[in-house]
Amino acid sequence: MKRKLILAFVSGLLAALLGIGFKAVMPLPVNAQSPTLLIAAAASLQETLKEVDPLFKSANPGIAVNYNFAASGPLQQQIEQGAPIDLFIAAATRQMDALQQKNLILTDTRRNILTNSLVLVVPSNSTLGLTSFKQLTNSNVKRISVGEPRSVPAGQYAEEVFKNLGTLDRLKSKFVYGNSVRNVLGTVESGNADAGVVYATDAKISNKVKQVATAASNLHSPIVYPMAVIKASKNQSTARVYAQFLTSQKAQAVFKKYGFGIAK
User: Fold this and answer.
1) Contact yes or no for 96/90 (Cβ under 8 A)
2) pLDDT digits 0-9 by tens, 217-237
3) Angle at Cα 177 formed by Cα 172 and Cα 182, nearest 5°?
């Protein structure tokens, strides 16, 4: 009997030791791996967020970040269709309002972070002598590149400017629509349009265009960039960390460098 008890004790001890050893070499569960965020952001933020990215990763080395840059309208649609996006930064309130109405964002994370202005650009070698938006009605201006107003906020703002100037109907036949503000910029850079309407920050990054006019702020809705964490995100707490970093002095210094204003 004593021998059986000893054997049982030894067997139990070995089993316990083996159990401890087995647990020690078990791989980490999948949910313990470093999170990877997917940020959906307006096309006009591309260079800026790429410069902010290493600053964020230096401060948060355990977090990986991927980006999806496009016009705010298509990004809104992707979120509505269930794309695995964690944080959305739009170039207008319209798209964020639509997501909020459908209960697709965490409303307590929504805030305006940036501002911008709308400008008229022409190819750097243009000889048209344009100095104002009103001059786009001139007969020597044949093609004007603008964003598609239903999906591209810069196009929405441009349409508002032309409506308020009373020139929209006369200009529509000249419009060459772009699927993002960067597409508009590229059309002007290539000379496939005589002029285009983009953000001041877009004009600043290109040496192939020159800015010839700035739209008065009372001619269009305020240009603000709202951000919010997506309600369906599986990385909500990490997305909040990223959102908070965008309001830091380091991130804001980059935004200012590229010509953005900081929303109040």
Assistant:
1) yes
2) 999 999 999 999 999 999 999
3) 140
Query: Which ranges in 68-213 belong to alpha helices (H)?
Result: 72-80, 93-101, 153-165, 168-171, 181-189, 200-205
CA atoms within 13 A on the CB side of 138: 13
pLDDT score for 35: 87
**pTM: predicted TM-score of the whole model, two decimal places:** 0.85
What does each C-alpha distance from 169 to 55, 115, 145, 163, 174 come to in angstroms? 46, 28, 15, 8, 10
d(CA 196, CA 227): 27
Tokens coding 94: 């319209």
Contact 124, 209 (CB under 8 A): yes
DSSP class of residue 89 equals E
Q: Residue 147, SS3?
A: strand
Whether the CB-CB separation of 217 and 117 falls below 8 Å is answered with: yes
Among 201, 159, 161, 202, residue whose Cα is nearest residue 177: 159
Two structure tokens written together for 166: 């009373």
CA distance 137 to 118: 18
